[in-house]
Automatic annotation (TrEMBL):
Alphabetical UniProt keywords: Endosome, Metal-binding, Repeat, WD repeat, Zinc, Zinc-finger
Source organism per UniProt: Gadus morhua (Atlantic cod)
Gene name for this UniProt entry: WDFY2
GO molecular function: zinc ion binding
Ranges where the FYVE-type domain occurs: 282-353
Lineage of the organism: Eukaryota, Metazoa, Chordata, Craniata, Vertebrata
Protein name: WD repeat and FYVE domain containing 2
Domain of life: Eukaryota
GO term, biological process aspect, one: positive regulation of fat cell differentiation
Subcellular localization, as worded in the UniProt entry: Early endosome
Chain positions of WD repeats: 196-229, 239-273
One GO term describing the cellular component: early endosome
Length: 412
């Protein structure tokens, strides 16, 4: 296999600034690219705008207290429209005017969108739509100008991942049952197109790359799946690099890197500029597909050959059903998404070269559980907010680098 070396990898993200002073968790924060600012919404009921001063520190410029906790936010930097979801089900659509000396927030429309906490809000400028999902298991869309509700769709479970493709008007809705539903949204109606099933836990985050037409889904099952819609072959690639729930996903399209974070505080930067492979289906067999010894439920063969039945395992590379003895070795298989060492059969272990083992992701520890992540492409900065109630702005430092420390063996 031809190895594309050197691979663009990432150094440890450098911490630029910290923003503290929150009484509670910041549920969403985004970088304002041109003004070098940050907008935050928090469970502590505040909407704040922070602008960077000459000292390099962010200072509060706007401090607006709402009547309830702010659960989510969507900001459009070109128009400065800000939509904030509340835990009582409302969405405030507001406009931020005048940056430099004085910033003011004008609440323009309040949408009564949901019966409970708003989980995700998404402002779509091209359609003048505010899409949202709530604890009431409804996906709704409103006109951002008039505030009128245009339509609603009942989802199977609560939705914590929502993305929209402007070109085809498809909404991607990831829910707590683990599935992603694709909806075709019209002005006042919507219809279900298909569902993607691949996760064994809640879908916690979605990220859509309209350029490559690829959808990433993150889950509480610790995995990320890349659904290649543009490729039209039904390819779904798994990425296994987290030891805890995936909480947020961002795609840096200019470097083709996926940034993911999880509740154990780890940030993983994936090189998506490599040809990745799908993981094989696990094969069924009554005996080891290498040494032919029976598995423990195969009483007939155990009796005939006077052998004790063995436990079944599966090689992650070829998918064959093998016994423990024939799969005693472990390896990473980065191009199959296994950045941790996994069980492989002896023959697959021999076939994996050092080049094949070159990592395609880098791992960083932010020390605190991350609840939200935002990558801003024009500044190249990465923002995280965590359970420590602190916003951190980092530079991921894209460069050629490959000396990475891998986490130890996970489960098998
Ligand atoms: Zn065997
Ligand atoms: Zn194998």
């Amino acid at each position: 296999m031809a190895a594309e070396q050197p691979k663009p990898q990432t150094r440890k993200p450098v911490l630029l600034s910290k923003i503290e002073a929150f009484q509670d968790i910041v549920t969403t924060a985004v970088i304002i690219p041109k003004e070098d600012g940050v907008i935050s919404v928090s469970e502590d009921r505040t909407i704040r705008v922070w602008l960077k001063r000459d000292s390099g520190q962010y200072w509060p410029s706007v401090y607006q207290t709402m009547s309830n906790s702010c659960t989510c936010m969507s900001f459009n930097p070109e128009t400065r429209w800000l939509s904030v979801g509340m835990d009582t089900g409302g969405i405030s659509v507001m406009h931020l005017t005048q940056w430099s000396l004085c910033v003011c927030v004008c609440v323009c429309v309040v949408l009564s969108a949901h019966q409970g906490r708003v989980l995700v809000v998404l402002f779509v400028l091209e359609m003048e739509w505010v899409l949202s999902t709530g604890q009431d298991k409804n996906f709704t869309w409103h006109c951002s100008e008039s505030g009128q509700q245009l339509g609603t769709y009942r989802t199977a479970a609560c939705v914590s991942g929502l993305q929209f493709d402007v070109e085809t008007r498809h909404a991607f809705v990831g829910d707590q049952s683990g599935q992603v539903t694709i909806l075709k949204v019209e002005q006042d109606s919507c219809s279900m197109v298909t569902t993607f099933k691949g996760h064994t836990g809640n879908v916690t985050a979605l990220c859509w790359d309209p350029g490559q037409r690829v959808l990433f889904s993150g889950s509480s099952d610790n995995s990320i799946i890349m659904w290649d819609i543009g490729g039209r072959k039904g390819t779904a690639i798994e990425l296994q690099g987290h030891n805890d729930k995936v909480q947020g996903l961002c795609f840096a399209s200019h470097t083709r890197q996926l940034i993911s974070c999880s509740s154990d505080g780890s940030i993983v930067i994936w090189n998506m500029d490599v040809t990745r492979q799908e993981t094989p289906e696990w094969l069924d067999s009554d005996s080891c597909q290498k040494c032919e010894q029976p598995f423990f439920w195969n009483f007939k063969q155990m009796w005939d050959s006077k052998k004790i039945g063995l436990r079944q395992h599966h090689c992650r590379k070829c998918g064959q059903a093998v016994c423990g003895k024939c799969s005693s070795k472990r390896s990473t298989i980065p191009l199959m998404g296994f950045e941790f060492e996994v069980r492989v059969c002896d023959s697959c272990h021999e076939s994996i070269t050092e080049e094949d083992r070159a990592p395609t992701a880098s791992f960083h520890d932010s020390k605190h559980s991350i609840v939200h992540i935002h990558y801003e492409a024009t500044t190249g900065n990465l923002l995280t907010s965590g359970t420590d109630k602190v916003i951190k702005v980092r530079v991921p430092q894209f460069s050629h680098y490959s000396a990475l420390v891998l986490p130890s063996i996970r489960n098998h």
